[in-house]
Structures are given as C-alpha cells and as structure tokens.
Amino acid sequence: MSELEINVDHLLQSLTFGEDPFAGFVARSSAAGLPEIQVSTVFGRYLEIITRLSRAQLILEVGTLGGYSAAWMARALPSGGRIISLEIDAHHAEVASENLASVGLGDRVEVRVGPALESLESMRNDPAISGKVDLAFIDADKENNANYLDFAVEFSHDGSVVIVDNVVRNGGILDEASTDPRIVGTRAVLAQLGRRPELTATALQTVGIKHHDGFAFAIVNK
User: Fold this and answer.
1) What global pTM score does this model have?
2) How would you label 88-122 residue by residue, b for 16+ Cβ within 10 Å and e otherwise?
3) 3-220 architecture in CATH?
4) Pseudo-torsion of CA 215, 145, 179, 207, nearest 10°?
5) Tell me: the pLDDT tens digits for 148-206?
6) Residues pairing with 218 in the sheet
7) Distance, CA of 178 to CA of 12 (rounded, Å)
8) What distance lies between CA 3 and its chain's CA centroid?
C-alpha cells in the first residue's frame, strides 16, 4: 500500500461525506486486541448506500469483527429493520456489541456467536429469516465463502442483494494452482456467482487503504 493510495482514499472521503461517524470503533477494537481488518471508511459508506438502495429491512452479515461494517448498514435501516451478524469469536462479538451500543445502534444488530455455518444451519427453519433476507454481506473466513453464499441465496428473495468482500487478494486469485485456502475459497465463490442461474453478478477490483482487493456483487433472481 502506497502513500498515494492512502491519500486518495482520504481525499475521496473528505470530499464526498467528510468525518467517519464510527472512527472510535477502530481505536477501541485495536485497543481490545482485534485485528485491523475492518472495511475501509469509503467502503463502509458504500454499504450504507446499498442498504438504502435495496430498501433492506433484514440484513445477514457473516463476519462481525468489531461491528464497523454493521454500523454503517444499521444506520441506513428503516424503523424496525435489523441485522443478524455472525461472529465466531466471543471476544470480538463483545467488543462489537459495545461499539454498536456506544452509537445507539445496539438494538438494530443481533450478534450471534459461534461457527457461522452452524449458526446458518440453525436459521434454516426460522420463518422470520428464510426468504426474508434483503441484503447479505459476506466477510469472514474465505475458505467457506461458497458455503456462505449458498445460505445467503437460500435465505433471500427475488431482488435481494449479496456482497462478498475481499475477492481479489492482491491478485492472488490469478494463481489457479494456489493451495492457500483463502485463494481456493475465493475462486470457488466467484465461480459459483458466475454459474448459478438465479444470480446476476459481477466483481470489481479496488485499490486504496485496503491494498489491491475487490468485492463481488450480485442480485438474486427467484
């Protein structure tokens, strides 16, 4: 990551929306020992806008970390809207809940602790979730990306939005022979996005504070 990329991200932020309303999350999360791998501020703003555009009322997030991305989406929810966010690490979940409560968003985000695949399996027969997810944001362990996508599509309806983060990995996805489970999982989810007839998808590469990476974006057609 170069100084130029950092400065461009900061300029884009300052010119288009200004201060980060959740800047304190990063400091508190870092002080609590969480890795600084949250989405960038400009991408957080993008998630807020997508939440509004999709008119989302129920959001599924796979990977809570310190609650930063959840906060951006939660602030765009209408009255009664909610996020179910899945986090494997109990300490991360505790920090996220404290962060969200500190900005008055704790009542909009339910953090469920445990392996995400187990949490998703337990949600299968919940009529309040199945077929009700308007927006799914997948940003957790990359080796399970394709499995997370399966659940996101299953829980969605016609017109739902699915976003998968970190799909370029500094160009690592070009290595077809890679044995890195993060690369293997990322290539698998991209291939799945392309071959499933109920998805209209694309992926974009990005450069900035989060290095050379990207995200995939899909609309569900049911």
Assistant:
1) 0.96
2) beeebbebbbbbbeeeebbebbebbbeebbebbee
3) 3-Layer(aba) Sandwich (3.40)
4) 10
5) 999 999 999 999 999 999 999 999 999 999 999 999 999 999 999 999 999 999 999 99
6) 162, 201
7) 34
8) 26
